From TrEMBL:
Its EC number is 3.2.-.-. One of its GO terms (molecular function) is purine nucleosidase activity. One of its GO terms (cellular component) is cytosol. Keywords: Glycosidase, Hydrolase. It comes from Corynebacterium minutissimum. This is Nucleoside hydrolase.
Amino acid sequence: MKIILDLDTGIDDALALAYALAHPDLDLIGITGTYGNVPVELGVRNALALLELLGADDVPVYTGPTREGFTVAPISAFIHGHNGLGEILLPPPRRTAQGDAVDFLIQSVREHGEELVIVPTGPSTSIAAAMQQDPDFARNARIVMMGGALTVPGNVTPFAEANVFQDPQATDYVFRHAQDLTMVGLDVTLRTLLTTEHTAQWRTTHVGRVYADIVDYYIGAYATTSPHLGGCGLHDPLAVAVAADPSIVECIDLNLRCEENGRTIGDPERLSAPATTRVAVGVDAPRFVDDLMSKLTSLYTSTSAC
């Protein structure tokens, strides 16, 4: 299956990128850059640098739109570091972005159809723009988004998860127009955790050490903001896992809306209409974490040996 990642490349995005590359059932055909954890330009730079680190510098990266007046929230800078990668400095990438993200998304769905899944892990701005520009995109795109919270509180307000909070209007548009959407939100991602005991297993290789340093920063931030969890949430990698294997989560079929305050909730105007959205409410966390660790450890080992 072909996959496009729409990343605001912070730390869990970096894990999602590596997991997509490591997964034998996924063919990463491109990354589109958005804003959120960092500005678009820095997220694109991070994606390019990580692809080079992971020996995948043939994967194209595209620049997406930003939101007028966007600035990185202080909590995002705290959790991901000011550079988005836990203040770990990677060599400047040798490549630059190749073009417009929205155009690439539209063209990719036209070309690959059902063979393609799109995984947005930041605000829905680029996905909504593609839908507005080309109605066929909304009808034909298969989307597995990381964002939202249906049965648990938000992580930036009592109601709102960070990605949908950045652009609730775009999220609402996507909810109302997508025909094949799975929401992987805080309901399940906060049940999948990584600890320093996990990252210590990566420290036998160069690439593994880089990733361990990046993720340990993330785990340290979680120890301050959410000490009850005992680790860091694997938000974005779980969305990639669901794209590859939907059985990793349990879903309910429910048409959603996103309110102006970022609350994701069932849409009362479409409760009896055929559902176009599945909401993940349960997850086989041990199976997912074991799979993530196995695939990433192998990737870091093979890449470091090159």
